[in-house]
Design a protein that fits this description.
- This protein has 147 residues and is mainly α.
- Helix content is 71%, strand content 9%.
- It contains six helices and three strands, in the order H-H-E-H-H-E-E-H-H.
- A three-stranded antiparallel β-sheet has the order 1-3-2.
- The two termini are 33 Å apart.
């Protein structure tokens, strides 16, 4: 590493720490509100969102895990919780007996639609709050500029 790269690495690390802090702050706000108002966790909400956006309302479990950033065993437990709540269920793939799909129910679509506006409002509010924090303001500004 050359001397010219060291300031960039320090700057990158400082920015990354700000992004992680911002992420943690926003995730806490979202998780708390979704759980309190709708009885779903943030991962459950994101799973419902993913399933709602698919053409048939279904997604292979591994693909769902990849799309919401969880491991296979975590997504299996998550879909189990959604199943218990009546929001989704597991179904075997007709073409590949090893394949398992998560499938959203009408009740799951309804719960997602109910929570969607709240999610957007809380996200904006959390980012606005974070933008007033000197350590997080640049990260918020950079994210909003990139969008």
């Amino acid at each position: 590493m050359t001397i010219n790269q060291q300031p960039r690495a320090a700057s990158d690390q400082t920015m990354w720490e700000a992004v992680l802090s911002l992420h943690a702050f926003v995730e806490r706000q979202l998780a708390h509100t979704l759980q309190r108002r709708y009885g779903v966790g943030l991962s459950e909400y994101r799973a419902l969102e993913t399933l709602t956006q698919t053409e048939k309302g279904e997604c292979r479990m591994q693909e769902l895990a990849d799309r919401i950033g969880l491991g296979q065993s975590s997504v299996t437990r998550l879909v189990g919780r959604l199943d218990s709540a009546g929001y989704a269920y597991k179904d075997n793939c007709a073409d590949d007996k090893r394949g398992v799909f998560a499938v959203i129910t009408d009740e799951g679509r309804k719960r997602y639609q109910e929570a969607r506006a709240t999610y957007a409002d809380v996200l904006s509010s959390a980012l606005n709050t974070a933008s007033a924090d000197a350590q997080l303001a640049r990260a918020v500004q950079a994210l909003r500029s990139a969008a």
